[in-house]
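2.7 Reproducibility. Because tokenized structures are sensitive to small changes in the input, we list the exact sequence used for DUF2975 domain-containing protein, including any N-terminal residues retained from the expression construct. No trimming or masking was applied before prediction.
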Amino acid sequence: MLEPMATVVSIALRVVLALVATGVVLSAVHGGWAGTTICITDDSSSSSHETVGALAPEQGAQIGWIPYYCADRPDAHLRLLHELGQLPSMLLLISSLFLLDRLLQGAAREGVYTERTASRLRALGWWLLAGSVIVEIIQANAKAALLAELAKDAHFTVGAWLNMWSAPYLAILTALGLLTFARITRAGASMREDLAGVV
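Resulting structure tokens (single pass, no recycling of outputs):
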């Protein structure tokens, strides 16, 4: 009943873990962060011009541009901010795939309508709900701090953080759906136990 989802999630988890392990090994072999360039886009300030360099738009059109800052020789502080702007979402993806794989494997062994399946479903829902919000807060703060370090006219303020923040609507709706299905599964498990008692 759980196929092809169980197989796809199991394969995806193994592929992601293999890619992460390969990336860590290659990073260690090639000197870690030594050759990494750190760049960030300032989405909060944009402008448009009639011409930019050799670019010339048609009459009535303008060229839009958004500032893009890069550090020539980033220090450890800038590298940490850069990693905090990307790493949490990868950790959330891996941990969510792990919990989903555990849920599907357990449901395949024990059955869909059991208390343990409902508990695992609820745990995954809460993990995704809280995790997606926390990850977005961490990444938005790290990006705002990095931009403040690289741009003279940018400051690490609440406004800068809000400009980097984007609410994870899809993850929140998915998490709420999982929590709802956990309640349905728990109700189904209770009905199953009642029927087993009657029989």
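The chain is about 65% helix and 5% strand.
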